[in-house]
Amino acid sequence: MTAATTMMDQPRGGPADRIGSFARDNAWSLGLLGFLAVLLGFTKFVNPDYGLDSLQGTATSVLPLALAAVAQAVVVISGGIDLSVSSQMALTSCIAATLMKGYPGEDVAVGIVILVLFIGLLLGAINGALVVLTKVPDIVVTLSTFFVWAGFALLVSPAPGGSAAHWLTDLVVGSLGVSWLPKAAILLIVLVALIWVPLSRSRLGLSLYAIGSNPLAAFRSGVAVNRTKFLSYVITGLIAAFAGLSLTALTGSGTPVPESTYVLISIAAVVLGGVSLAGGIGGVFGPIVAVIVLQLIRDDMTFMQVDSNYGLVAQGLILIGVLMVGSLIQQRRSRA
Amino acid sequence: MTAATSTVGGNRWFSASTWRNLLRDYPIVPLTILLAVLVVLADILQPGLVNLSWVTATVRQAAVLGILAGCQTLTMLTGGIDLSVGYIASMAGFVTATFVHQPGGWPMGIAVSLVAAALAGLVSGVGIGIFKVHPLIVTLGMGLVVFGFANVWQLQSVQTGSGVPVEIRTIGSGTLGALPNDLLVFVPVAIVLILLLKRTGYGRMLYAIGDNPIAARLSGVRSWQVLVVLYALSGVLAGIAGLVQSGLSNTASVTLVQPYLLPSVAAAVIGGTSILGGRGGYSGTIIGALILTVLGSVLSIVLPEPWRQVVFGSLVVLVAAAYTRVTAEA
């Protein structure tokens, strides 16, 4: 979990050294990928019918949560937390579904999607402005805005309803050409490639890590701490809006009551994915893998006809257990 | 901005810094004023509302919220938080209800549910104190575990049937003269918590750990023991809150108390306990719980549900912001 620190210390050597240092830097993610591979094997074992085609179902069901985890990861990396992600998703999803029902038409829907993304930016901007201007701890601010967004969602659509444009649904449901290439996974990769990859390589991306790692050091090195913090919430808002749109696309409607487990699972996935809650360490790749792992565990249990509630128990225990082991290893290492 | 620099002339009783210090050292004074204003506002908005039965109903709701906010106050003092209280409390109420037709009856139910609550808290405490995992995550995970087990228990107990025991209902919704019975639970809890924080070494250790964990360790505080006990205690408190709530609403479900989770954090914050640790107390939290309950009551007079949530959230941010501004030690 010391990716950021070792990255600075490693001298650039030959290819073998590079592979070695890559493995060290990404040990947590690689371990998680290994775990995912084992889990996929196990899935195939308990459910021989689970083939490449089934990946599509998994990818589709994981999409909103994966986007929520990415949104959460951005703000956690910069040392904050956003407990209002799930109600941001509910609000943007409701606005999209309600507008698309009120103003049908495939072309109009493009405008609606753009509008909803702007609303996502706005929600994130309000969160960020409150955190930066009031200096109230981020947990308290986003806890409060959780209520505010959820209230607005109920105002927009008092009951679940609305509809989604066909092209929007087509974008996430189904597969691309060959049956084992789920559109949802492609969409996720494209979104991450369009938002996160350029961001993490930019000045702003470096600033996000800097203020998460040590705000004072970042300030003294000339990073505009407040502005960066504000922007981290704005980016989270934008990605949460994408997550909300994916909900609308998948269900063809908007549900005003935020799914209470989304926030919890998004934080769980972020931490399982190797992002430190203290900030400054991690990426968005780990959290996405973690979301898939958590989903597969539940799917497997459903298939093994274990009471689905044990799925919750397992998710919780895995979350606590993995972190305990991770923390123990870290303590041992720092003591040595 | 210390008191000395900001008192530039003027009558010191009316200077900003005097108020600032008052707010910082005795947050309970302005909070009580705010509470009084809200009560008056409620009576203006709906004349005749504030009567004995309204007070009783308000105190009842605030008692449950207050006990849960106690969990948050104690854990927040050490720089932690307990997000499992909603599910633990619901579990306690539900499990007790399923024991009505079982051997042992309701006392057995209470015993089992409180032991389970303590156990859940204990495991959280081990994760936080010994393995040093962030409290937010541990209690989050523990919440999922408890919720899952409660659901399993629910499926197991469908055949046997359940119901909130009469004794619990008496505590939750009966009255003793003019006083609601649940004060019989709340007042002792409040006294124990206030004394624990103000008069015992354990209480001081909670402040010490939250204020500066390294200094606390260097002065010989065994943080892990303190934290393990703390989260177990928090679990038991949540269990008690769940029992009271199930008696109050005469229902038992595995999500009954979950809606109180976020307000319980808000009540502690409004009551002046810093989420960063080391500052606060339980008396402020009690007023915070009352303020939130009265606020909910006022809002329900004038606004429909969606707007109520919007205003509720905005006000919590506003109060917290005012608080941070006034008490900021720059």
Task: Map the helices and strands.
The complex is a heterodimer of chains A (336) and B (330).
Chain A: H1 3-9, H2 15-25, H3 27-46, H4 52-77, H5 85-102, H6 106-134, H7 138-156, H8 166-172, H9 183-201, H10 203-213, H11 215-220, H12 225-251, H13 260-272, H14 285-303, H15 308-335
Chain B: H1 3-6, H2 16-25, H3 28-45, H4 52-77, H5 85-98, H6 105-129, H7 135-156, H8 166-173, E1 175-176, E2 179-180, H9 183-199, H10 201-211, H11 213-218, H12 223-249, H13 261-270, H14 282-302, H15 305-327
Antiparallel strand pairs in B: 1-2
Helix pairs in contact in B: 3-14, 4-9, 4-10, 4-12, 4-13, 4-14, 5-6, 5-7, 5-12, 6-7, 6-12, 8-12, 9-10, 13-14, 14-15
Q: Which bin fits the share of residues in helices of chain B?
A: over 70%
Task: Please identify the top-level CATH class of chain A.
Answer: Mainly Alpha
The CATH class of chain B is identified as Mainly Alpha
Q: Report low-confidence residues of chain B grouped into runs of 5 or more.
A: 1-9
* Biggest contact: A-B, 47 and 48 residues
As for the CATH topology of chain B, it is ABC transporter involved in vitamin B12 uptake, BtuC
Average pLDDT rating of chain A: 84
Q: Approximately how much beta-strand content do the residues of chain B carry?
A: under 5%
Helix content of chain A: over 70%
Q: Identify the CATH architecture of chain A.
A: Orthogonal Bundle
Gyration radius from CA atoms of chain A, angstroms: 20 Å
The secondary structure category of chain A is mainly alpha
Q: Characterize the biggest β-sheet of chain B.
A: 2 strands, antiparallel
- The helix count of chain A comes to 15
Tally of structural domains of chain A: 1
- Could you say what the CATH architecture of chain B is? Orthogonal Bundle
Strands in their spatial order, largest beta sheet of chain B: 1-2
- Structural class from helices and strands of chain B? mainly alpha
